[in-house]
Design goal:
Number of helices: 10
Number of strands: 0
Number of domains: 1
Distance between the termini: 40 Å
Structural class: mainly alpha
Shape: globular
């Protein structure tokens, strides 16, 4: 079991290293020459490539640009954010298109994960969540061109995480003998996109609802995978959990930024949610208050979310 665990952790680590190598840093051109750097890409161009590409390769393509040695994120320009675009369904090639409702499959119950087929179905659903989130985040960069520059750059950082998460899920699915796209895909996240009209509604709907729920879902499914001896999938869920804390922190900081001084952040959160995406969706099994504290959410927010969710 120890060797299996080490191999599983190594697989996740190797996926991270492989992804980072695809980021295109400047390279030395010679002892007396300037470094050769790719032309700095516009944030809008990066977002358009993801949103309008219909292939997984296009949606996973990293931005060109000099990598910041501290953040390890390519430096993108935001001089031409362009005009805002309304929500539309992202481009998808036939192999990754949304399936008709009657063909879609639900995430299996954790008690069924002793079957490899059910573990594949579970990971496939989670990979689709990452793909939808990746596309929606790219759209957010196109939809909110007037958002604060730090907001937009922070969203680029999260998009890179989502690309990595999708790739790791695809790799783990392949390790179990299947391929992403083998099973029907749904449009769960897309259904609320058109209702996110501004950055505060965005952070409340995406980072503080869908992603916040993973602070509960990821540990829950990690434990389920461990119970059936699937250490590779368990290690992946741990990585997702750790990254989601940072994503929720991003959402919480911007929620605080947008909240009036005389208003509680949880009240602003509730006021910014759409009718189809309410606060009870921001949690899963076994409410993890400590993870929310690690993400910087204030105690009033955490307590009221827990109480609100328990009423649903």
């Amino acid at each position: 079991m120890l060797s299996l665990t080490l191999r599983s952790c190594k697989r996740v680590t190797n996926a991270v290293k492989s992804f980072k190598k695809r980021l295109r840093p400047c390279t030395p051109a010679g002892p007396n020459l300037k470094r050769k750097c790719p032309k700095m890409m516009e944030i809008r161009e990066f977002a358009e490539r993801i949103f309008f590409s219909d292939t997984l390769e296009g949606k996973l393509d990293n931005p060109a640009g000099e990598v910041n040695p501290q953040t390890r994120v390519p430096e993108l320009s935001d001089l031409s954010p362009g005009e805002a675009i309304a929500w539309q369904q992202p481009a998808r090639a036939p192999g990754i298109r949304v399936a008709p409702k009657k063909k879609r499959k639900k995430v299996p119950h954790p008690d069924a994960l002793h079957q490899k087929e059910m573990r594949i179905r579970c990971l496939h659903a989670f990979a689709n969540h990452e793909l939808m989130a990746l596309e929606m985040m790219a759209w957010a960069l196109l939809a909110y061109p007037d958002a604060p520059k730090l907001f937009r750059k922070g969203l680029v950082r999260i998009i890179l995480d989502e690309q990595l998460h999708l790739q790791m899920y695809m790799d783990q699915i392949a390790a179990l003998g299947a391929k992403f796209g083998d099973l029907p895909l749904n449009d769960h996240f897309w259904r609320v996109a058109a209702e996110l009209h501004n950055p505060v509604e965005w952070v409340c709907g995406m980072h503080l609802t869908f992603e916040q729920a993973n602070l509960d879902h990821a540990p829950y499914f990690k434990a389920a995978f461990e119970r059936v001896g699937d250490e590779g999938s368990a290690a992946l869920m741990q990585r997702i959990f750790e990254d989601e804390i940072m994503h929720v922190r991003f959402g919480g900081r911007w929620l605080k930024h947008f909240t009036p001084e005389d208003m509680k952040t949880f009240d602003m959160y509730l006021a910014s949610l759409s009718p189809h995406n309410q606060a009870f969706r921001a949690k899963g099994h076994d409410f993890n208050a400590d993870a929310r504290r690690d993400a910087g959410l204030d105690e009033d927010f955490i307590i009221r979310l827990h109480e609100y969710s328990n009423q649903m």
